[in-house]
Structures are given as structure tokens and as C-alpha cells.
Amino acid sequence: VDYFDVIVIGQGYAGLTAAKLAAERGLRVANCEGECMGGLILNINELEPSPSGQELSGVDLASTLALSNAESGVTPISDTVTAVEQGEEGLWIVRTEEEAYSARNVILASGAKLRKLGVPGEEEYFGQGVSECADCDGPMYGGKDTVVVGGGDSAFQEALKLAEFADKVTIVMRGAVPRARKDLVERAKGNAKIAHRTHSSVTEVIGSPENGVEGIRIQSGAGEEVMPCAGVFIFIGLEPNAAFVQADVRRDASNAIITTEAGATGPEGLWAIGAVRSGFGGMLTDAEADAVRALAALS
Ligand SMILES: Cc1cc2nc3c(=O)[nH]c(=O)nc-3n(C[C@H](O)[C@H](O)[C@H](O)COP(=O)(O)OP(=O)(O)OC[C@H]3O[C@@H](n4cnc5c(N)ncnc54)[C@H](O)[C@@H]3O)c2cc1C
Q: What distance, in Å, lies between the first and last C-alpha atoms of the chain?
């Protein structure tokens, strides 16, 4: 079994940053990734804000970091972690689909996935009008009506992006007021293509095999109605990727891992940073700050 001082699980921004800092300290570090390096920001063409303050795409940010990590001696492991277990003499065993590795410290930076609505039609029409990426799919909606579901930063950011292409973007949210940042809400309000629907839950995505999405069914105080649209973009929050962590760590109601300020999960040497952690601030700068704090506390 290969030994490392630190194994970082996840090559999203939090994990790449933690691996970089660990390498800078001269530690022997491995960084596992089960899917694509970059994580949630891979689909974002214009980070807003970007950690450097300069215009930057998610792919550029992540690949620059990954490249410099490779040069600094970080061992990349392209494999999905299936288990993290407490071994003997204070060591952790990280099992992937192919191998097992051991380390004194394990940093969980496995992030999150976009939460699904869980309504009929959502899965059926995914890629046929149901989308999680305005940058990728927006250009297909020129001259069409679209819906963005959600009331947070990513819903508003993606609605503004989508409005560059679509005729109309209706933001549908359950609450009375958006949770998104004020500047994003103000910009959406000032955009003639963007409309808002509060107190409304999407109960179904309606469509046909020929046309894909044709509308959504909405439940509100006024009852039920069908809103016609060609695209539904869903940004209703995040689901932490933490199911592979069997160790006895505490989680919150949304299954995010509970940590101290520094990212300690409880058992010695097991840390959690970024979007997998309960109370994560949400932005790339927060992910970076998490990585900095965990590395400072790590013995
Ligand atoms: C639509 C949208 C737009 C956003 N725009 C911005 C923005 O403009 N500016 C900003 O500051 N923030 C933005 N954010 C927030 C930002 O994306 C997050 O703060 C950040 O990406 C979190 O990084 P992370 O590394 O914690 O998680 P992730 O990006 O989710 O990375 C986790 C990585 O771990 C991998 N992984 C998971 N499980 C395993 C496993 N078992 N084994 C191996 N690997 C695993 C995943 O494949 C993934 O690559 C946006 C978020 C969304 C949803």
C-alpha cells in the first residue's frame, strides 16, 4: 500500500488548493479524482467572482492549478474513492475502485452535486430541455422561453447568463424572496428578459419524446398551473458527496460533514473542506480559505 503524508480526495478548487499547499510544505501528497478535475466550476465560463478578481473560466482556473500541482510533485490518482477507513497506528486507509492507499491525514474535498428536483419528467428530459448549465446549453434557446428553478446565487447567475440567449427567463422559487446576493438580484430585476415567480414549486416537467421539454407544472397559493417553456435549468442547491465516508463523522441534515472552523471532523487526521463541509461559505474564495485553515492545523 502506497503511503502519503496527506491524501486529498477531490480535484475541485478546494482539493486542488489543499494539495498545492501541502506540496508547498514539502509533504508527500496524493490527490484523487473520480470524474473530471475541476468539479463544479468546470461548466462556468465566466467566474463571478473569480478568486483572482480577473476574468477567468473554471476550466482555466482548475487546469492551471492541476498543472502546477503536477510540477510540484503532487501525485494525481484518477480513481473514485469508495471508502475511507481508520487503519492501525493512526493511519487512514483510502480505498479506490482499483487500489488502496494509506496516509496520516486525509482531507475530504469531495464537494457536492447539484440537487435534483425529484419530480416526474426531470430525469426523462435531462439533456432534452432539462439542464444544469446555462453556458453549455444556453445558446440552444435563442428566441425561446426558459425557466430557471431556484432562488440562490447560482440560480440568479445562471439566469443572467441564459438571458443572453433566450427570449425570456422566468426564475421560479419556492420562497418569498431570493436568497441570492443583492447585486445579482438587482441585475436580474433590471433585465427586461427576466421575470420572477415566488411561492411556487415545480411539481412536474412536461414534455414529449419528439419535442423534449414543453413546460413545467407549478403549484402555488393560487393552485396548479402549466407554464410553457422549452428549457428548464435547475439550481436548487447542493448535495454533498459524502456517502463514501464510512468513518464515524457527524453530518448535518443535508448530509454535509460537520467540522470545526479548521475543518477537523473529529477522528484525528480526518479533515473536510469546501462544499462537502457543513457551513461552507459557498464561493471559491471560501473553498480556498478552508484549504488554508486545514493545512495550517494539520500536524
Ligand atoms: C452553477 C454554479 C456557479 C458557480 N459560480 C461561482 C462563481 O462564479 N464564483 C465562485 O466563487 N463560486 C461559484 N460557485 C461555487 C463554486 O463552484 C464552489 O464554491 C466550489 O466549486 C466548491 O469546490 P469544491 O472543491 O469544494 O467542490 P467540487 O467542485 O464539487 O469538487 C469536488 C470534486 O471531488 C470529486 N469527487 C467527489 N467524490 C469523489 C470520490 N468518491 N472519489 C474521487 N473524487 C471525488 C468530484 O468529482 C469533484 O471533482 C458556483 C457554483 C455553481 C453550482
A: 22
The string of pLDDT tens digits covering residues 71-126 is 999 999 999 999 999 999 999 999 999 999 999 999 999 999 999 999 999 999 99
Q: How confident is the model at residue 248 (pLDDT cuts 50, 70, 90)?
A: confident
Which amino acid, 3?
Answer: Y
Confidence band of 246 (pLDDT split at 50, 70, 90): confident
Is 39's C-beta closer than 6 angstroms to any atom of ligand 1? yes
The answer to whether the CB of 91 is under 6 A from ligand 1 is: no
What are the distances in angstroms from CA 177 to CA 55, 172, 181, 200?
Answer: 29, 11, 11, 11
SS3 of 170, please?
A: strand
Q: Decide whether any atom of ligand 1 lies within 6 Å of the 57 Cβ.
A: no
Across 10-152, the runs of DSSP E, i.e. the strands, are: 29-33, 75-78, 81-86, 92-96, 100-108, 112-114, 130-131, 145-149
Q: Determine the Cα–Cα distance for residues 133 and 236; give it in Å rounded to an integer.
A: 13
| Cβ(15) – ligand 1 distance below 6 Å | yes
- CB of 19 within 6 A of ligand 1: the answer is no
Alpha carbon distances (Å) from 239 to 87, 114, 146, 202, 204: 28, 6, 24, 19, 21
Which three cell numbers, joined as nine digits, stand for 37?
478535475
- Determine the residue of 40, 50, 54 to mutate for testing ligand 1's pocket, defined as the one with the most ligand atoms within 8 A of the Cβ atom: 40
- pLDDT digits over 159-209, tens only? 999 999 999 999 999 999 999 999 999 999 999 999 999 999 999 999 999
Neighbours of 83 (CB within 10 A): 13
